[in-house]
Design brief:
heterotrimer; A alpha+beta (750); B alpha+beta (158); C alpha+beta (77); B: alpha+beta; DNA polymerase, domain 1; five-stranded mixed beta sheet; 5 helices; 5 strands; 34% helix; 16% strand; globular; C: 77 residues; 3 strands; 29% helix; binds FE2/S2 (inorganic) cluster
């Protein structure tokens, strides 16, 4: 699939089908559902970062007439004391359960301890004071350095480091080590003329979706219970709640509300199982909402990291060796995206000798969740910074340096496979030709450029397309639409069926109305669910041909279907899709197409970003004055939403690089748990974000799609970091480049 | 003790009972079922709850319900007339100025306030006026393009 | 069949030739020849077949010349 194809709908900028409801306030998000008889749940959260719970007594709360139900860890039958005693506990659910409601120990400021349901939100919050709780405060572990030091308190007494050469013999805050290598790293550095070696760090940051977590649930003893929530994966919500509460999947129905942003942060459960426990105990529908402070303190931010990078090259620009030691904070429970961090760190480069070592470290901060290309921004930031520094030392243009070493088809990656056709070189060429790169660098401005790589994934998707007797139809999918994907589904189906996109209404069905779909994430939706839509539409085309054949008394092979019209190859007859639907009653009943797939062949997406930054030398304040994001989409189904992904990812990355960070007191109290102090980029902070779509088709997808959602957050960290370094004439090794830090660098240079 | 409040919302006379500590946002969303106005922070930092209060742009999470007595309130639900979208809404759709859409109601209301006050803003003016409305999905690029296009279209229409 | 550094520890070698034309035969062959490489180690992993990442390889087949790698499943963001 390399020749340019003519498309009717794909590549157009249609109006999204869910747009009307979203601009008029009709669309219903997580907090928008209320039910008759509904009561409210509230959560008691730990004021300490690390403490043993020495007393938890809910009897006073229970006796209060306003209180209708209380939930604690002991209400998780899958893992509670009874289950442990009987040996029936579900392995693998312990951490999840302990994160949702603490078990004897709190591990971060804001860690949930107990929940109360009452007739009003205010009453529920007030009743939290009636819970008698006492803590034995422990010293918190708040950084990687601290966590891995010999004196550090151990967060989990049973945690042994996995992946060591010799099996671990004592508990540690390092949950896992990973090692990847290729070639001979020593020989590689020996062959280098110039070597750059530097340590980098990045802070804990939050996805910052504007919609806080919220849910409304109804427990039903006799039929499926209902959970309404904003999530990237309602099937996974169902699975986790079922496992935690020892229910069968069929006993729970999860309805995915509209979702107000997720970026990876809405791929797990916090409130839903608690609300269901409260609903079961009270016999009432229960609603719960997180405050913005709760979202910051107790949902899943992205890992802070420390990276040690060493890169060597010859004077002609050939990189001979790259080495990384990467530490990722997992938060209170193991499981940072250290693995993908290790796998992606050097993937933009075709280099003989590589060595990467990664560590997953627990600290007294909230358990991290995925955030757009999880793990990659941290490690690739460090690698790209070092690569830029090296290019400069050798005196090569950063694009030329990358072109000389760029990963391409056949490049052996460090994690194993060889790359297929990829678009890095095309992105670099597009960057070289871009108006931005060719514009002179203004005075007092630094320019930085960086590349990024993300795998993208496929996975399971299920789609049903039902046609109506008048030829209109419904696309029933199960991938929550987080940024306009309904529009792409509509366009892909319309392309195959040869009808107007607006005649097909895409709906995101609940867990009962469509078969399992993997979570929206990994940039998989347009790729994998899109593939299912195409297959379901093709299934319909086959049926349309058979129906037309029946009408004409010919065989299906004697019918051609093109642009929405069936042609009788043995004569002149034609029937439109609508004609065939209108007579479906006579030819065997109504027409539905269906596809249940496990999509393979996701195509990696590379990106290159260019950033110009002006630094105020008096205050250390930075200003992004020009920004360009270039990325390989494979094929852009809806170019506006593809550009939107590039721009949104770029700006999140800019925030990460310039301002955003969790600030903790020495006691582990998060001091900036609100949008005023955790400052995400504002409209007034930014220039236009120029988006350039590169299209190097992915041969595994019928239209050539690669995922586009995640890669865009990777390059900004180093593009911005390098631009700041250029502007101030000092190396940058620590994010964010906040004014105080920059000022300090400027002063130390004087 | 709840107070009895009479107010006007999107041109309709509305009465409600509210607690003295209840915010206007809470009244709109939880008592009146008008969930078009969103809550992103509850502290005046995100603009998702933007409404017009006697023609002035405010964060409904920072206004008390009791303050609505005798006021004229306009929410996102009142921006379109019947099924006819306002130019601002049309331009947001045309320019793909929303991804998840949670910030959109607030931005539509704020943009309306901006263009009523200043029918020909520069891009910079638009960016500063809308700085109180956070959007985490779009990077603002397409929002600003939609706003500038809406302004131009409205000037032509006027 | 190639192993990355993390698996190499279990496998005791970086690569080897296996005779298998599908995933299940591959697992059988590997776990028999390399007792350190248990089902528990391998089944949570994705399989890469000639550069194509297959997250759920249970039914996957491949050619006799195929280059295979096990990698950690890719998380989603
Ligand atoms: S909810 Fe009112 S400003 Fe955020
Ligand atoms: S579109 Fe999601 S926050 Fe603006």
């Amino acid at each position: 699939m390399s020749e340019a194809r003519e498309f009717k709908h794909i590549g157009q900028r249609t109006i999204r089908p869910d747009g009307f409801d979203k601009v008029t306030g009709k669309a219903n998000y997580g907090a928008d559902l209320s039910l008759p008889g509904m009561i409210w749940g509230a959560i008691l959260r730990s004021p300490h970062a690390h403490a043993n719970i020495t007393k938890l007594d809910v009897s006073r709360a229970e006796a209060n007439p306003d209180v209708l139900a209380i939930a604690t860890f002991e209400d998780f039958p899958s893992v509670n004391a009874a289950a442990q005693r009987d040996g029936t506990q579900r392995d693998g659910m312990m951490d999840t359960a302990c994160n949702i409601l603490a078990n004897q120990k709190v591990l971060y400021h804001g860690h949930a301890v107990a929940a109360i349901a009452a007739r009003s939100e205010a009453a529920a919050i007030a009743a939290l004071d009636l819970i008698d709780i006492e803590y034995e405060v422990l010293r918190p572990v708040l950084s990687i350095d601290d966590a891995i030091s010999a004196q550090a308190p151990i967060l989990h007494e049973t945690m042994m480091t996995q992946g060591l050469a010799e099996p671990a013999t004592k508990a540690s805050n390092i949950s896992a080590r990973m090692e990847l290598k290729k070639g001979d790293i020593e020989a590689g550095f020996a062959a280098a003329d110039v070597i750059v070696e530097r340590a980098y760090d990045t802070p804990t940051v939050h996805q910052g979706y504007i919609e806080p977590h919220a849910t409304t649930v109804v427990f039903n003893e006799n039929g499926p219970s209902m959970i309404w929530c904003p999530t990237q994966g309602h099937f996974d919500v169902r699975a986790r709640v079922a496992q935690l509460l020892n229910l069968e999947l069929g006993q729970i129905k999860v309805v995915a509300s509209e979702i107000g942003g997720g970026f990876g942060g809405k791929t797990t459960v916090y409130l839903e199982p608690v609300a269901l426990i409260l609903s079961r105990k009270s016999g009432r529908p229960v609603k719960m909402e997180m405050s913005r402070g709760d979202v910051f303190r107790a949902s899943g931010p992205a890992s802070a990291s420390q990276s040690l990078i060493k890169v060597g090259a010859k004077m002609d620009g050939t990189i001979t060796a790259m080495q990384a030691t990467l530490h990722y904070e997992a938060g209170a429970f193991q499981g940072s995206p250290m693995g993908p961090g290790c796998m992606t760190v050097f993937t933009p480069y075709d280099v003989e000798n590589l060595y990467v070592e990664g560590f997953d470290v627990v600290v007294n901060k909230p358990k991290v969740a995925a955030y757009r290309a999880p793990g990659a921004p941290q490690s690739e930031f460090a690698a790209e910074m070092a690569v830029n520094e090296l290019a400069k030392k050798i005196g090569m243009d950063p694009i030329e340096f990358r072109l000389k070493n760029a990963a391409k088809e056949g490049t052996q990656t460090i994690y194993g496979p060889k790359l297929k056709v990829v678009g890095l070189e095309a992105c670099l060429e597009a960057a070289k030709a871009s108006p931005h790169y060719n514009a002179p660098i203004p005075e007092n401005v630094g320019r930085g450029l960086a590349a990024g790589f993300w795998f993208n994934i496929g996975g399971q998707s299920s789609v049903i397309i039902n046609l109506n007797p008048d030829g209109t139809g419904t696309i029933i999918e199960g991938s929550p639409d987080i940024g306009g994907s309904r529009a792409s589904m509509q366009m892909m189906a319309a392309e195959i069926l040869g009808v107007a996109p607006s005649s097909l209404n895409p709906i995101v069905a609940d867990t009962e109305h469509v078969a399992y779909n993997q979570t929206t994430g990994g940039s998989r939706t347009t790729f994998a669910t899109g593939m299912a839509v195409v297959e379901a539409a093709e299934d319909i085309v086959e049926q349309l041909k058979a129906r037309a054949a029946a009408m004409w008394n010919v065989t299906a092979e004697q019918v051609d279907f093109k642009d929405g019209v069936a042609h009788n190859l043995t004569g002149e007859d034609q029937l439109t899709l609508a004609d065939i639907c209108a007579s479906a009653e006579k030819t065997g009943g109504q027409i539905s197409g269906r596809a249940n797939i496990n999509a393979r062949g996701a195509g990696p997406s590379f990106a290159v970003h260019i950033c110009d930054i002006k630094v105020d030398k008096e205050t250390g304040k930075t200003d992004v004055v020009r920004y360009t994001a270039i990325q390989d989409a494979g094929k852009a189904i809806h170019p506006s939403y593809v550009e939107g992904q590039f721009q949104g990812g770029a700006v999140q990355g800019i925030g990460w690089a310039l301002n955003e960070e969790y600030v903790y007191s020495k006691d582990g109290i998060m001091e900036n748990a609100g949008f005023l102090d955790y400052r995400i980029p504002l409209a007034s902070d930014l220039p236009e974000i120029e988006a350039i779509i590169v299209e190097v088709p992915n041969s595994f997808h019928p239209f050539g799609v690669r995922g586009v959602g995640e890669t865009g957050i990777i390059p900004p960290l180093a593009a911005v970091g390098t631009a700041v370094a250029e502007a101030i004439g000092q190396p940058i090794s620590s994010l964010p480049c906040s004014p105080p830090k920059i000022l300090k660098l400027l002063m130390s240079a004087q | 003790m709840k107070s009895h409040i009479s107010t006007t919302i999107n041109g309709d006379p509305v009465e409600f009972l509210c607690d003295p500590s209840q915010t206007l946002l809470n009244v709109l969303r939880n008592d009146l079922g008008m969930t078009g106005t969103k809550e992103g922070c509850g502290s005046g930092d995100c603009g998702a709850c933007s409404v017009l209060f006697d023609g002035e742009l405010v964060c409904a999470c920072l206004v008390l319900g009791v303050e609505a007595q005798g006021a004229e309130i306009e929410t996102v639900e009142g921006v379109a007339t019947h099924d006819q979208l306002h130019v601002i809404q049309e331009k947001f759709l045309e320019h793909a100025a929303l991804q998840c859409g949670i910030c959109t109601p607030g931005l539509i209301v704020s943009t309306k306030a901006l263009l009523e006050e200043n029918p020909s803003p520069t891009e910079e003016e638009a960016r500063y006026f809308l700085a109180g409305n956070l959007c985490r999905c779009t990077g603002y690029d397409k929002i600003i393009k939609a706003v500038m296009d809406a302004a131009a279209t409205m000037r032509q229409g006027a | 069949m190639c192993f990355n550094a993390s698996l190499e520890k279990h496998a005791g070698c970086a690569s080897l030739h296996v005779v298998a034309l599908n995933y299940r035969a591959l697992l059988e062959e590997l776990t028999q020849r390399l007792p350190q490489l248990t089902q528990e180690v391998l089944t949570p992993l994705a399989l890469v077949i000639d550069g194509e990442i297959v997250q759920e390889p249970f039914l996957a087949g491949f050619s006799a010349e195929a280059e295979l790698h096990f990698i950690e499943k890719i998380a989603a963001g």
